[in-house]
Amino acid sequence: MTIVAGCDVGSLTSKAVIMQNNRIIGSSIIKSKPRPGDSAEAAFAEALAAAGLAAEQMAYCIGTGYGREKINFVDEVVSEITCHGKGARWMLPTAETVIDIGGQDCKTMKIDKNGNVGRFSANDKCASGTGRFLEVMAKVLNIGIHELGGLSQKARNPVTLASTCTVWAQADIIKFINSGVPLEDIGAGINSAMAARVAILVNAVKPEGDIFMTGGVAKNIGVVATLEKLIGKRIKRARKADPQIAGALGAALIAMEKTS
Amino acid sequence: MQVFHDAATQVQCQSIMDWKQSGRPVVGYTCSYTPGEIFHAADILPVRLRGIETDGMEVGDTYFGPFICSFPKCILQLAGKGKFSFLDGAIITPGCDGMRRLDECWRKAGEDFKGIVPDYFYYFDVPHKSEDHGMSWYMDEINALIEGVERHFQVNITMDKISAAICEFNKGRRLLAEIEDLRAKDDVVVSGTDVFAATVAGTVMPREEYTEALTAWVAELKKQITSLSRGKKRVLLIGSVSDEIDLFQLIEDTGKAIIVGENLCFGIRYEGCEIPETGDPLSALASHYLGSSVCPRMYGKYKERLQLLKDRINHSKAEGVIMQNIRFCDLHGAENALFKRDLEAMGIPCLRVEREYGPHIDAGRMKLRINAFLERIDARKNPQRRRA
Fold first, then answer.
1. What is the pLDDT at residue B383?
2. Which residues of A touch B365 (CB under 8 A)?
3. Does pLDDT of B375 surpass 90?
4. Is residue A90 part of a domain?
């Protein structure tokens, strides 16, 4: 059976997926290194090890993500917007609207039944509404980024950030910490600010049908729950795989199409 | 072709410098509403002012502030750095509010940077409507401009000279229209980047020299048989003012697209349309420069502009439209949203991107969106190849 791979080099994390017969047989998520080529090699090696395979056994490999042009071992590169559409449809076969929050950008897209992207909208040149925003805020709170989502559920009086600008919001948070505001309330405020920013993009593509979220932020329940309230629709959860690997998965799916 | 690329990518290009060397004046202008024929008739070289080659924004930001389109700011930046020292005059028009403000910002900057304001510095007003009263106002402005040029440069601009200038400019316009027909063929033999460079060159080069070079190039193109469009998506580029060859290269360097047409202020939308050579030359100029304007600054003409866009899409067989607007360009930002709504409803894929002008273009972010857009067109063309 043909084995293919997809590699997604993002600004914060790099992911790789190995697929055979439409099934994921190996995957990885690593923290991105300064050089995109090094990130790709490391993520690919880890996914290969998980699958117990060697690079030579790959029939086709597609690269994606901001560092896609620097991956040496791929046969072709495809934009991450296209890959996330494909990956999302595989994870949720009824998905029609996809929200992808990556490390340094945020995209929303409409997809057809084949996972092909139709209309899409992306944030413009600002860290607000991206994974980087959450990373910076978690650092200020001195917690892990994965802990941020849970704070929303414990919050009693969530704070409101005066600005969604990453720099100004940081200053706001320091002020709240110094005023003795509980960590949960600050965390919930951060998640809400993030969701409010993303909601603007989501509404821009007029979400329809089942909505699915990809990227690392899809695992932040605080952001997802607030976003659901703001757009007035439920966002379906990923069950078949980690939503963070959707880009690499989509790349592998396109690689599979190329070999079929 | 090289002469066009040189003229399109250098503010102080050789053609302008040669003209200057001959002792004849050069007048810069900021907007497509300025009839270049008037200056040509006075043996003055009209040069459209541009913002390329800026490597900072300290002058532009100081006088304009941060929340405004970067195109007029780049012009002011270059002026402040002495890049326009070859100018004997400058014409500022209210193409948009940013451009209108260039008049006062340039004058104010001139108080701090001595010698950057040319001796002849003229505000050429342009109405926002082209109905009778607007046309009559615009005619008054043209007459006042002619009088001002005659007085300042001690020249005599006769109607015969203006008619001759119209004929000379029309030669280039006809040649550009021929190129448009070449681009409409199934096999396109010329890149969008080259065509745009040739079009932009026409806004700065002496007209006779331009006509000669363009004649030779078009003859060369007609002999070309190698198709540059096979396997590529045919794209139309529209939106905010652009004279950036880099922007065209960014799209065509993806290897997935060829730009088969544009509707840009520096592009063929004005440079490719002829002006009647008979009758009153001033009325002909006014009808062309104001009456045929398809700029979103003109009131009540959205339907005409949409129709023009549809015609261009049909003529060039474009498969998708890339709509760009410079940050804070409300005119094109708003219009692009309407175009996208109406064209998508007709099944034409559109991409809207907001960006900074020229050297401040954020190539990585733009490339991601452009690549995804081209993949979207590809998926529409080959849906069976992309099954999940």
1. 59
2. 105, 124-125
3. yes
4. no
